[in-house]
Amino acid sequence: MAGGNAGSTPEMVTGAQAVIKSLEALGVDVVFGYPGGAIMPAYDPLIDADLRHVLVRHEQGAIHMAEGYAHATGRVGVCIVTSGPAATNLVTGLADAHMDSIPVLAITGQVARSAIGSDAFQEADVTGITMPITKHNELVQSPERIAGAIHEAYHIAQSGRPGPVLVDIPKDVLNETFAWSWPERIDLPGYRPTVRGHGKMIREALQLISEAERPVIYAGGGLVRSGADQELFEFATRLGLPVVTTLMARGVFPDTHELAVGMPGMHGHYSGVMALQEADLLVTLAARFDDRVTGKLDAFAPHAKVIHVDVDPAEIGKNRAVDVPIVGDVKVVLGQLLKVLDDKSDADFAPAADAWRQHLIEMKREHPLRVEQPDTGVLKPQTAIRAVYDTWGDEAVYVAGVGQHQMWSAQVIPYSRGRQWINSGGLGTMGFAVPAAIGAKVGVGRDVPVVAIDGDGCFQMTFQELATAVQHDIPVVFCVVNNGYLGMVRQWQHLFYDDRLSQVALPQDCPDLMKIADAYGIPGFRVMTVDELDTTLAKAREITDQPVLIEFRVDPDEMVFPMVPSGASNDDVIESAEEWRARLAAAADDQ
Amino acid sequence: MNRHTLSVLVENKPGVLTRIAGMFARRNYNIHSLAVGPTDDPRVSRLTLVVGAEAVQLEQIVKQLNKLVHVLKIVELDEADSVVREMQLVKVAAEPQHRSQIIELADVFRAKIVDVDHDSITIEAAGDPGKLEAMINLLEPYGIREMVRSGTIALARGGKSITDGSKVRMQRVV
Prior knowledge:
The complex is a heterodimer.
Chain A: E1 12-14, H1 15-25, E2 30-34, H2 40-46, E3 52-55, H3 59-73, E4 77-81, H4 85-88, H5 91-99, E5 104-110, H6 126-130, E6 136-139, H7 146-158, E7 164-170, H8 171-175, E8 177-179, H9 199-211, E9 215-219, H10 222-226, H11 229-239, E10 243-245, E11 260-262, H12 270-278, E12 281-285, H13 291-294, E13 305-310, E14 324-327, H14 330-343, H15 346-349, H16 354-366, H17 381-392, E15 397-400, H18 404-412, E16 421-422, H19 433-444, E17 450-455, H20 456-462, H21 466-471, E18 477-482, H22 487-496, H23 513-519, E19 524-527, H24 533-541, E20 548-553, H25 577-590
Parallel strand pairs in A: 2-3, 2-4, 4-5, 5-7, 6-7, 9-10, 9-12, 10-11, 12-13, 13-14, 15-16, 15-17, 17-18, 18-20, 19-20
Antiparallel strand pairs in A: 1-8
Helix pairs in contact in A: 1-2, 1-7, 3-5, 3-19, 9-14, 11-14, 17-18, 17-24
Chain B: E1 3-11, H1 16-26, E2 30-38, E3 44-52, H2 55-67, E4 71-77, E5 82-93, H3 99-108, E6 112-117, E7 120-127, H4 129-139, E8 144-149, E9 153-156
Antiparallel strand pairs in B: 1-3, 1-4, 2-3, 5-7, 5-8, 5-9, 6-7
């Protein structure tokens, strides 16, 4: 690592070399990228750098790979692309990372300083365009600023509430030669995230917990970002607090534990939804009261007091009034809470909630997911996804796109740890799975299987990245749950638009996914019926040294339940299509 | 909606004003007035924002502003306990027979005549927004040709400074 150069002749480098040296100094081991005009100077020193570069097929792929890498490892994912259209192709991924608090560093080329503002070839105001969808960004104005900008960006991306940071570097800045030095210290006087919770609030939170009769931990994605699995487990089990895990937090508390009550929200488990509705205390850990969790906000958890822990003060009180606010990193705050338990005793704070826990256990038993899979013939998507889990198991990482297949994957797989489940939650980015799975696989390495569970609509948005997986030897298992429809849109049109289907059919056999597999030179497997499921998956499982594509032709009529209709109270959760039809009939009778 | 006056210290970096204005637009907050200028520290600029918000939204505005990396400090100024000023330039139609009346009016408001032409007078006035409104009302009958008004600037009364006990730890450049 290059240090200060006091007393010695300074090393002269180009701006482009400074970019690479900065990434090396930060310990970055892989970048996802795509070269082009303005960034080309940086691609020359890359040849000799101690950095793996994964050449993508579309810049959106680069940023989703960086996200998948960051999601799976907790480290900053880095992507590097050129100016103009390449930079604008990052926009979706930046917005996605911003919504889901994923640490990403994006480096973009820019036209030369003298050309900025002249509508030059491949010029776009990238810092302007990305301002509302990045945690921070900077247009670098001199080569001396490169190292500082990248160092700060990396720090901002991964600290506090993580997020994407973009550094835009003009081509002439990359070409200029200057005296290199690495800023060991960074100076960000306006950026000092609060990490430790306030002691008084910690005590008040424990007081509320001790008095509760129906407490629930509402566990959010921030627990995963913070790597707080252990602390959460200890805290929940020592105090006997039931846990719901949001879409972004699936796995951070093991689904098989008796305190696990499932996923809340629009397509959550019945018990996950109702536990929050019936609770008298929400211990909210790094969750953000998203509308997909709360349903109709003023009918959400109507009996509950709220403790809210979040590293972002702006999340506290944003959607729901809070009784005990705690600003801090959730891992640190849980450590503080556990310290109080250690100093006193668990019994001092454990609520008298035996009856409540028993009630939730019975609720889980009485309201399981309802999937009716016939013994032969038509394959239900949930059956296919469960079989994928049974084949690749608990050790694998599962990555989903957006839509029905995502919800089924969140519902039916019993997750056991954070970072085991990767998806696009906040932004709901179709096409996320293929590139994110590739990035995740780069991050977790050879020994951990990474399985993308995608829909046929999503897959067709980004499957060009199969070539990236092949070229760079990244053996991801790509599963496509093919129902020949934009299933979630179809479900809504069926339920709320009187089954008037509008522009949702995607021919199930176009493209022929087996020919796609063939075209990319990877093994392809197609499962048409439930009978073929196990034998085909067993064959696919044997392939570990190259990407695999598996297509499931599933029942196009299957819908995602439970469901809380948009804008409805969570109390109105509907558990099955039959229940939905019965309600419609009853409503018709009333008229 | 209640009006609140926020004093915001920011790093004097390119785009900082865009970041703040953009945040207000994106989150659908109301800005009534915005003024920005240098401070005694060349690396720090000071914004005065007048926003329309109820209490819960005001808290969000402050928190969201604080999330911007270049924002150093935010203080809400109590209008009753602050010196609040706007500045106004007004070009009034002034036929020779009206000229002395207009000058008298300006005197009443302790405003200055900064330009005179054959048939117009330009007046410079500073004060709280209510005073400037009152002056405009009285000048209106003569015919206002053109006017421009600055955003609000404000300082808390008393000896304390916004940077006292502050998280602003930038070294002063001497």
